[in-house]
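Researcher: Final request for today, and then I'll write up notes for the group meeting. The sequence and the SMILES for zinc ion follow.
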Amino acid sequence: MKCSTCKKPLNTTDRRVRYCSDRCKANRPKRPNLRALNNPADAEQIPVGPTPPRKMTVDQAARDGSDLELLMAMRDRVADQVADVTCPPRDLAALTRRLEEIRKQIAAERARIAEEVDGVAATVQDGVFDASAI
Ligand SMILES: [Zn+2]
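Model: Predicted protein-zinc ion complex:
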């Protein structure tokens, strides 16, 4: 058993004890709020690790972006089309639906990454993050 905040071993086998001190309890890492999935717009608030997704164009993201970066680039591209006043109404309906789908996918992807980051933080103690390993 280890302290959930500082990862120091806990001198107890009591599974209910999760922190070594009141200070660690107060400073516990915040878990992402997965209720955010109910409102895709809030998903932007889910932390996705030490490197925030970059703002890229669709073709840049398709070449060397992550899944999340590609989704975000597509969202921006579709949002631009929706915002375009010359967009024909019959296209607008389809584009708006597509935009909503992409937002949900972004929310799901952010939640997945947040879970992953959380899991890694919980299991790896002294490992150095190696970006080239992924
Ligand atoms: Zn601690």
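Model: Residues 1-22+52-121 form one domain. The chain has a mean pLDDT of 80.
Researcher: Thanks, that's everything.
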